[in-house]
Amino acid sequence: MHTVRCANCGRPNRVPEAASGTPRCANCHQPLPWIADAGDDTFAEIALRADLPVLVDFWAEWCGPCRMVTPALDQIAQEMAGRVKLVKVEVDRSPALSQRFTITAVPTLMMLNEGRVVAQRAGAAPAPQLREWVEGALRTPS
């Protein structure tokens, strides 16, 4: 469970890693950013069964470009609250997922819609370029 401050009214809200629907502020009912951590044992519940399209960030603690991309992805999750769920997967702690999705470089970003991969890219990029990529992936028919 993460605590997220509503961008609209400022109230802190607890947002679960996995749930149905879209998280909304308990006070003003505006959509909240949904950012969750997942691993080998929790990925199916947190990412594959999500009601929203999911932006998956495969990253590593030792990866400099991963640290550069994190603030941009958090910003995108904020701006696209109610439209996407950001799920972060630390590759060194999730070897089965890394193998399943053939992750050979970090960061690798993947968009899932209804549990299916609709777009994938490797490497860091500035926030505007990442946002454009996410928007394009959301337009991809599932």
TrEMBL record:
Domain of life: Bacteria
Coiled-coil stretches noted in the UniProt entry, renumbered to this chain: none
Record keywords: Disulfide bond, Electron transport, Redox-active center, Transport
PROSITE patterns in UniProt: THIOREDOXIN_1, THIOREDOXIN_2
Chain ranges of the Thioredoxin domain: 9-139
Presence of keyword Electron transport: yes
Record bears the keyword Electron transport: yes
Similarity annotation: Belongs to the thioredoxin family.
NCBIfam families for this protein: thioredoxin
Protein name: Thioredoxin
